[in-house]
Amino acid sequence: MPPPQPQPALSASPDAVVWMAARRFSPAAGPLTIVPHGSGNVNTTFLVTPVAAPTTPFILQRLHPAVFPDPRLIMHNFRVLTTHLEGCQPRDPLAPKRRWELPRIIPAVDGADFWLDGTGSCWRALSFIPAAHTLDTIQDEGHAWEVGFALGRFHLLVSDLPPQTLADTLPGFHITPSYLDAYDAIREQTAIPAEPEAAYAQEFISRRRGWVGILEEAKQRGILTVRIIHGDPKVNNIMLDNATGQAVGLIDLDTVKPGLIHYDLGDCLRSGANPLGEETTAWDRIHFDDRLAKAILQGYLAQARLFLAAADYDYLYDSIRLIAFELGLRFFTDYLAGNVYFRSSHPRHNLWRAVVQFRLTASIEAQETALRRLIKELR
Ligand code: GN1
Ligand code: MG
């Protein structure tokens, strides 16, 4: 993976190019309101609402040009995915009226799926999912179950979509050994700063080097199968119905691509079973919550049991441990590289985020026996 370059700055308040982009997707000539939206670390997102009727809002996004250099592939995958999903409106025998909605592409006024601005950045519009919200951290076991259920339902709905129909939009994404290579490469160029957190991170990584290839080796040996994955099923990418609190669907579909469902489940659990969230600095209190993990797994398996193979279960524990570790490695590498990938609000932000993920990994490791037993009980 080539190291990404810093993304061109965009001011928090919408500037001229944002207004131009909004107009490309808004045929009505009347005034618009545009406000920054969401809390993504990579893309830049706005909510655009026409002031005069019909006041149907839509999501306007600029894809991070260095993270997603080929917007055509992203939008191709988006089209294939949404066309596939339109044909399968899921019905629950227990809750037939349960909502299920994913963002749809809103074409530009010229009919194209996206617009490239003067700098080559890709802008696109997506439908806004009404009467629903996201939360950054899990509230309780009911919320955890819904998060797991949404991921399981997504995997189930795409389980009959052949992986080769989607392009690999982000080569190397969730291939943990390649993140280790990137870390080693940056260390050859940069000394580790004399910060206690940096020393902790360096030591933490060095003790786990021999294990980072566990999922990739199982994939190479044909033990684990490549399927379609979401790629980023963290808690705040799961929409919840405002009235019922039930999961409505998943957003942030740019990383949907072929991969191991283990990356997704690991990501969902490292995000969902961390009650303090990714941005905490209360490092001594960070823990992997086994009750929340159980609820996420129960919700997930309510759907995923229908397609998971026996070997898939054998790697669930390692996937939970690995994706937490991998995100810590990614944050730490970005800190060493000068914060060029993840949006950050101060120079040590990605270092602190790395510590959070490593503390979480340590908590997962301390509960290995209990977690393996839980997976066995639930399968
Ligand atoms: C990034 O942009 P956002 O917040 O949806 C990242 C994920 C990380 C996540 C950590 C394409 O996602 O892999 O898990 O930050 N997305 C990409 O918050 O790298
Ligand atoms: Mg994302």
Question: How many E-type strands?
Answer: 11
Radius of gyration: 21 Å
Q: Averaged pLDDT, please? A: 92
Q: State the helix count.
A: 12
Structural descriptors:
single chain, 379 residues, alpha+beta, Phosphorylase Kinase, domain 1, Aminoglycoside 3'-phosphotransferase, Chain: A, domain 2, 2 domains, six-stranded antiparallel β-sheet, three-stranded antiparallel β-sheet, 12 helices, globular, disordered N terminus, binds 2-acetamido-2-deoxy-1-O-phosphono-alpha-D-glucopyranose, binds magnesium ion
Question: What does this molecule look like?
Answer:
By secondary structure, the chain is of the alpha+beta class. The protein has two domains: 14-130, Phosphorylase Kinase, domain 1; 141-378, Aminoglycoside 3'-phosphotransferase, Chain: A, domain 2 (Alpha-Beta Complex). The chain has twelve helices and eleven strands. It has helices spanning 16-24, 71-86, 141-158, 176-189, 196-206, 214-220, 261-272, 290-304, 310-314, 316-337, 349-366, 368-378; strands spanning 32-36, 44-50, 58-62, 105-106, 115-116, 122-127, 132-133, 227-229, 238-241, 247-250, 257-259. The strands form three sheets. Strands 1, 2, 3, 4, 5 and 6 form a six-stranded antiparallel sheet that branches. Strands 7-9-10 form a three-stranded antiparallel sheet, covered by helices on one side. A hairpin with a 5-residue loop joins strand 5 (115-116) and strand 6 (122-127). Helix 10 (316-337) packs antiparallel against helix 11 (349-366). The longest helix is centred in the C-terminal third of the chain and has 22 residues, at 316-337. It is globular and about 60 Å long. 2-acetamido-2-deoxy-1-O-phosphono-alpha-D-glucopyranose binds at residues 40-42, 67, 232, 234, 252, 255, 278, 327.
